Amino acid sequence: MTSFEEEKAENIRRLGENSLIAKTSNTWITEVSKYKYSYNFTWMGRPIIQFPQDILAMQEIIWRVQPDLIIETGIAHGGSLIFYASMLELIGGTREILGIDIEVRSHNRIELEKHPMYKRIKILEGSSVDSLVVEKVHNFAKGKERVLVILDSNHSHDHVLRELQLYAPLVSKGSYLVVFDTVIEDLPEDFFQDRPWGKGNNPKTAVHEFLKKNDRFEIDKEIENKLLITVAPDGYLKCVKD
Protein backbone atom coordinates (compact mmCIF):
# COMPACT_ATOMS: atom_id res chain seq x y z
CA MET A 1 0.00 0.00 0.00
CA THR A 2 2.92 2.37 0.63
CA SER A 3 4.07 2.23 -3.00
CA PHE A 4 0.46 2.58 -4.19
CA GLU A 5 -0.08 5.72 -2.11
CA GLU A 6 3.24 7.19 -3.25
CA GLU A 7 2.36 6.59 -6.90
CA LYS A 8 -1.10 8.08 -6.38
CA ALA A 9 0.33 11.20 -4.73
CA GLU A 10 2.76 11.68 -7.61
CA ASN A 11 0.02 11.28 -10.21
CA ILE A 12 -2.16 13.82 -8.39
CA ARG A 13 0.75 16.27 -8.19
CA ARG A 14 1.37 15.94 -11.94
CA LEU A 15 -2.31 16.38 -12.73
CA GLY A 16 -2.26 19.64 -10.79
CA GLU A 17 0.65 20.89 -12.89
CA ASN A 18 -1.06 20.18 -16.21
CA SER A 19 -2.45 23.50 -17.42
CA LEU A 20 -4.17 21.91 -20.43
CA ILE A 21 -6.23 19.63 -18.18
CA ALA A 22 -7.16 22.58 -15.96
CA LYS A 23 -8.26 24.62 -18.97
CA THR A 24 -10.21 21.71 -20.43
CA SER A 25 -11.93 21.04 -17.10
CA ASN A 26 -12.96 24.69 -16.79
CA THR A 27 -14.36 24.65 -20.34
CA TRP A 28 -16.32 21.49 -19.53
CA ILE A 29 -17.75 23.02 -16.34
CA THR A 30 -18.75 26.18 -18.20
CA GLU A 31 -20.58 24.23 -20.89
CA VAL A 32 -22.46 21.77 -18.66
CA SER A 33 -23.44 24.50 -16.21
CA LYS A 34 -25.54 26.07 -18.97
CA TYR A 35 -27.80 23.02 -18.60
CA LYS A 36 -27.82 22.93 -14.78
CA TYR A 37 -25.79 19.73 -14.81
CA SER A 38 -25.55 19.59 -11.01
CA TYR A 39 -29.36 19.37 -10.75
CA ASN A 40 -29.36 15.91 -12.37
CA PHE A 41 -28.47 13.84 -9.30
CA THR A 42 -30.10 12.54 -6.15
CA TRP A 43 -28.91 10.92 -2.94
CA MET A 44 -31.28 8.38 -1.43
CA GLY A 45 -34.17 9.99 -3.28
CA ARG A 46 -33.50 13.70 -2.62
CA PRO A 47 -32.01 16.15 -5.18
CA ILE A 48 -28.45 16.86 -4.08
CA ILE A 49 -27.43 19.63 -6.55
CA GLN A 50 -23.72 18.86 -6.52
CA PHE A 51 -21.15 17.51 -8.96
CA PRO A 52 -20.58 13.76 -8.41
CA GLN A 53 -16.85 14.50 -8.06
CA ASP A 54 -17.47 16.77 -5.06
CA ILE A 55 -19.81 14.22 -3.51
CA LEU A 56 -16.97 11.70 -3.66
CA ALA A 57 -14.53 14.20 -2.16
CA MET A 58 -16.91 14.88 0.73
CA GLN A 59 -17.26 11.14 1.32
CA GLU A 60 -13.49 10.86 1.65
CA ILE A 61 -13.30 13.83 4.01
CA ILE A 62 -16.14 12.63 6.25
CA TRP A 63 -14.74 9.11 6.50
CA ARG A 64 -11.27 10.44 7.32
CA VAL A 65 -12.35 13.12 9.81
CA GLN A 66 -15.25 11.14 11.36
CA PRO A 67 -16.91 14.33 12.62
CA ASP A 68 -19.22 14.42 15.61
CA LEU A 69 -21.09 17.29 14.00
CA ILE A 70 -21.46 18.56 10.43
CA ILE A 71 -22.81 22.07 9.96
CA GLU A 72 -24.13 23.06 6.54
CA THR A 73 -25.44 26.46 5.50
CA GLY A 74 -27.88 26.23 2.59
CA ILE A 75 -30.35 23.34 2.43
CA ALA A 76 -32.30 23.65 -0.87
CA HIS A 77 -33.98 20.25 -1.46
CA GLY A 78 -31.96 18.64 1.32
CA GLY A 79 -30.09 16.02 -0.68
CA SER A 80 -26.74 16.99 0.79
CA LEU A 81 -28.18 16.78 4.33
CA ILE A 82 -29.33 13.24 3.57
CA PHE A 83 -25.94 12.39 2.07
CA TYR A 84 -23.99 13.65 5.08
CA ALA A 85 -26.44 11.98 7.47
CA SER A 86 -26.03 8.66 5.64
CA MET A 87 -22.27 8.90 6.03
CA LEU A 88 -22.64 9.59 9.74
CA GLU A 89 -25.02 6.63 10.00
CA LEU A 90 -22.32 4.40 8.52
CA ILE A 91 -19.73 5.70 10.98
CA GLY A 92 -22.14 5.21 13.87
CA GLY A 93 -22.45 6.77 17.30
CA THR A 94 -24.55 9.85 18.06
CA ARG A 95 -23.17 12.03 15.25
CA GLU A 96 -25.46 14.71 13.83
CA ILE A 97 -25.79 17.24 11.04
CA LEU A 98 -27.19 20.73 11.53
CA GLY A 99 -28.64 22.36 8.41
CA ILE A 100 -29.24 26.12 8.25
CA ASP A 101 -31.31 27.98 5.69
CA ILE A 102 -33.05 31.34 5.59
CA GLU A 103 -36.18 29.56 4.32
CA VAL A 104 -36.98 25.85 4.29
CA ARG A 105 -39.88 25.35 1.93
CA SER A 106 -42.68 23.26 3.37
CA HIS A 107 -42.61 20.55 0.69
CA ASN A 108 -38.88 20.06 1.21
CA ARG A 109 -39.26 19.92 4.98
CA ILE A 110 -42.03 17.31 4.66
CA GLU A 111 -39.87 15.08 2.46
CA LEU A 112 -36.87 15.46 4.76
CA GLU A 113 -38.81 14.73 7.93
CA LYS A 114 -40.15 11.44 6.61
CA HIS A 115 -36.75 10.26 5.35
CA PRO A 116 -35.05 7.45 7.34
CA MET A 117 -31.85 9.54 7.63
CA TYR A 118 -33.70 12.46 9.23
CA LYS A 119 -32.99 10.96 12.66
CA ARG A 120 -29.49 12.45 12.45
CA ILE A 121 -30.59 15.83 11.08
CA LYS A 122 -31.50 19.06 12.84
CA ILE A 123 -32.77 22.06 10.86
CA LEU A 124 -32.40 25.70 11.87
CA GLU A 125 -34.38 28.24 9.86
CA GLY A 126 -32.94 31.74 9.60
CA SER A 127 -30.04 33.63 8.06
CA SER A 128 -26.71 31.93 8.65
CA VAL A 129 -25.18 35.29 9.58
CA ASP A 130 -27.95 36.42 11.95
CA SER A 131 -26.54 36.80 15.46
CA LEU A 132 -29.31 34.72 17.09
CA VAL A 133 -28.84 31.90 14.59
CA VAL A 134 -25.08 31.95 15.05
CA GLU A 135 -25.50 31.82 18.83
CA LYS A 136 -27.76 28.77 18.52
CA VAL A 137 -25.24 27.04 16.24
CA HIS A 138 -22.36 27.69 18.60
CA ASN A 139 -24.41 26.39 21.54
CA PHE A 140 -25.33 23.28 19.54
CA ALA A 141 -21.65 22.66 18.78
CA LYS A 142 -20.54 22.84 22.41
CA GLY A 143 -18.93 19.62 23.55
CA LYS A 144 -18.43 18.32 20.00
CA GLU A 145 -14.83 17.18 19.58
CA ARG A 146 -14.69 17.08 15.76
CA VAL A 147 -16.70 19.60 13.74
CA LEU A 148 -16.89 19.92 9.94
CA VAL A 149 -18.42 23.04 8.37
CA ILE A 150 -19.81 23.39 4.82
CA LEU A 151 -20.83 26.76 3.37
CA ASP A 152 -23.31 26.63 0.48
CA SER A 153 -25.89 29.39 0.91
CA ASN A 154 -25.79 32.95 -0.48
CA HIS A 155 -22.72 33.08 -2.76
CA SER A 156 -21.91 36.80 -2.56
CA HIS A 157 -18.47 37.85 -1.31
CA ASP A 158 -19.70 39.70 1.78
CA HIS A 159 -22.06 36.94 2.88
CA VAL A 160 -19.52 34.13 2.50
CA LEU A 161 -16.77 36.16 4.15
CA ARG A 162 -19.04 36.77 7.13
CA GLU A 163 -19.92 33.06 7.29
CA LEU A 164 -16.22 32.21 7.24
CA GLN A 165 -15.54 34.58 10.11
CA LEU A 166 -18.47 33.29 12.16
CA TYR A 167 -18.13 29.54 11.64
CA ALA A 168 -14.38 29.01 11.24
CA PRO A 169 -13.83 28.97 15.04
CA LEU A 170 -16.04 25.87 15.27
CA VAL A 171 -13.85 23.78 12.95
CA SER A 172 -11.48 21.44 14.76
CA LYS A 173 -7.86 20.82 13.80
CA GLY A 174 -7.62 18.18 11.08
CA SER A 175 -11.17 18.82 9.93
CA TYR A 176 -12.37 20.99 7.04
CA LEU A 177 -14.19 24.20 6.26
CA VAL A 178 -15.60 23.57 2.78
CA VAL A 179 -16.76 26.52 0.65
CA PHE A 180 -18.79 25.48 -2.36
CA ASP A 181 -19.27 27.37 -5.65
CA THR A 182 -15.91 29.10 -5.61
CA VAL A 183 -15.92 28.15 -9.31
CA ILE A 184 -18.07 31.24 -9.94
CA GLU A 185 -14.85 33.26 -10.14
CA ASP A 186 -13.60 31.06 -13.00
CA LEU A 187 -16.75 31.23 -15.13
CA PRO A 188 -17.41 33.86 -17.84
CA GLU A 189 -18.08 37.46 -16.80
CA ASP A 190 -21.75 37.43 -17.81
CA PHE A 191 -22.62 33.93 -16.56
CA PHE A 192 -24.75 35.02 -13.59
CA GLN A 193 -26.82 37.88 -14.93
CA ASP A 194 -29.82 36.98 -12.72
CA ARG A 195 -27.79 36.65 -9.51
CA PRO A 196 -26.22 39.17 -7.12
CA TRP A 197 -22.84 37.41 -7.42
CA GLY A 198 -20.35 36.90 -10.24
CA LYS A 199 -16.69 37.37 -11.15
CA GLY A 200 -15.02 39.47 -8.44
CA ASN A 201 -17.90 38.93 -6.01
CA ASN A 202 -18.22 35.29 -4.97
CA PRO A 203 -17.11 32.57 -2.54
CA LYS A 204 -13.57 32.35 -3.96
CA THR A 205 -12.90 36.05 -3.49
CA ALA A 206 -14.23 35.66 0.06
CA VAL A 207 -11.92 32.68 0.73
CA HIS A 208 -8.86 34.58 -0.43
CA GLU A 209 -9.79 37.60 1.69
CA PHE A 210 -10.44 35.37 4.71
CA LEU A 211 -7.09 33.59 4.43
CA LYS A 212 -5.20 36.88 4.53
CA LYS A 213 -6.11 37.20 8.21
CA ASN A 214 -6.54 33.58 9.32
CA ASP A 215 -3.65 31.12 9.47
CA ARG A 216 -5.63 28.21 10.94
CA PHE A 217 -6.62 27.07 7.45
CA GLU A 218 -4.82 26.07 4.27
CA ILE A 219 -6.25 25.34 0.83
CA ASP A 220 -6.03 21.59 0.27
CA LYS A 221 -4.94 21.66 -3.36
CA GLU A 222 -4.56 17.89 -3.49
CA ILE A 223 -8.34 17.47 -3.41
CA GLU A 224 -9.05 19.66 -6.43
CA ASN A 225 -5.96 18.34 -8.27
CA LYS A 226 -7.32 14.82 -8.13
CA LEU A 227 -10.94 15.80 -8.80
CA LEU A 228 -10.11 18.09 -11.76
CA ILE A 229 -13.83 18.78 -12.08
CA THR A 230 -15.13 20.58 -8.99
CA VAL A 231 -17.36 23.50 -8.04
CA ALA A 232 -15.01 24.26 -5.15
CA PRO A 233 -11.54 25.20 -6.47
CA ASP A 234 -9.64 26.77 -3.54
CA GLY A 235 -12.70 25.90 -1.43
CA TYR A 236 -11.47 22.82 0.43
CA LEU A 237 -9.90 24.45 3.49
CA LYS A 238 -8.12 22.17 5.93
CA CYS A 239 -7.80 23.31 9.54
CA VAL A 240 -4.13 22.95 10.47
CA LYS A 241 -4.07 24.69 13.87
CA ASP A 242 -6.08 24.52 17.08
Give your account of this protein's structure:
With 242 residues, this protein is α/β, with parallel strands linked by helices. The chain has one domain (2-239): Rossmann fold (3-Layer(aba) Sandwich), CATH 3.40.50. It is built from nine helices and nine strands. Strand 6, helix 7 (157-167) and strand 7 (176-179) form a beta-alpha-beta unit.
Question: What key attributes describe this structure?
Answer:
single chain; 242 residues; alpha/beta; Rossmann fold; seven-stranded mixed β-sheet; two-stranded antiparallel sheet
Task: Report a brief summary of the structure.
With 242 residues, this protein is an alpha/beta fold. It contains nine helices and nine strands. The mean pLDDT is 97.
Instruction: Give the structural class.
Output: alpha/beta
CATH class: Alpha Beta
Radius of gyration over all CA atoms, rounded: 17 Å
The poorly predicted ranges are none
Q: End-to-end span in angstroms?
A: 30 Å
Q: Determine the mean pLDDT.
A: 97
Q: Which architecture does the CATH hierarchy give at level 2? A: 3-Layer(aba) Sandwich
List the helices and strands and how they pair.
Elements: H1 2-17, H2 19-33, E1 42-43, E2 46-47, H3 52-65, E3 69-73, H4 79-91, E4 96-101, H5 106-113, E5 121-125, H6 131-141, E6 147-151, H7 157-167, E7 176-179, H8 203-211, E8 217-219, H9 221-227, E9 236-239
Parallel strand pairs: 3-4, 3-6, 4-5, 6-7
Antiparallel strand pairs: 1-2, 7-9, 8-9
Helix pairs in contact: 1-9, 3-4, 7-8
